[in-house]
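Predicting structure from sequence has reshaped protein science. With that in mind, we have picked out one protein's residues alongside their backbone shape tokens:
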Amino acid sequence: MIQPTNRLISLDAVRGFTIAAMIMVNFPGTEEHVYFTLRHSKWNGLSFTDLIAPVFLFVVGVSIALAYSGKRDSAAPRGPLYRKIVIRALKIYAVGMFLNLMPDFNLADARWTGTLHRIAFVFLFCALLYLNTNWKQQVWIAALTLVAYWLALTLIPSPDLGRVVLEPGQNLVAWFDRQFLPGRMWQGTWDPESILSTFPATVTGITGLLAGRWMLSSASPTEKVAYLMTVGFFTTAAGYFWGLTFPVNEGLWTSSFVLVTSGFAAMLLGALYFLVDVLGYRNGTAPGIVFGANAIAVYVMADVLALFFYRLKFGGLPLNELVVEELINVGFQPELASLLYALFFVAVNYIPAYWLYQRKIFIKL
């Protein structure tokens, strides 16, 4: 039983359920059989899976606002705090590199970007912004970044082709990575966690900073809910209409994608804040709180446990393929069988996460 605390329980729940969703979509029973919305969109569009990373970055922004609000107003020297922020970002990036290199640790074929790498950069930039700017300046930085990114991708020709294109591997973002990004790219000629798209991804974090500032305000709980839901709705709508000319696209992390997903994240936080922190409906939040208490540790643990649950062979087949095959043989739809194994793997990760939570062991990078 999760005991109520003075923390923002809804934020813990959003963080934890987002990590659980990451594990579910990253580790299906078999890549061959996956429901379409549990895959990333092939290019333009928005699936359930496409929402996961931006929601987590939004939560990173909210968490920064809650964690550093007192430090920002303090007269203490900033040097030690800046060092802690930089060191924490480096730790997150290093763990991301560890996962990328595992299990062969072949530096010659290393990929230098990824989910944790992006979280590290967004955390670093947003934390420094939060400590050195007010909310109006953050709004201007966010808006100018999104407009500049839109203009760059729609007006500057790709040097390889001499014309403006937004197609995978041919756009300005992919060209920039081929010039300056070391190592292997996830899709060969392009990478979804690219150099240039880190800028709009940081704006996703800034939207979380703004939401966090509102949650710290003296507004009443109902006013906070109304603000999150209203601003979230109109932000999502603005992203949709912008997407008619600048498509919603996670691979490019387009400006329209930022608005649509940040608006969704704000409404999700508003809804859970109303249900959990205002009305007190907390029974269903336990799994989210457990996962959220050690979010990055659980994310890393999933990759380690996958070495057994997805690589170790039994009778010539990895355990995941063996289980999915048996489920299909007894009559389960292939996609359902694959999803059931993914949910089983989420439950496997819950066991050590719960063990850590019960013993109040919180692994912070």
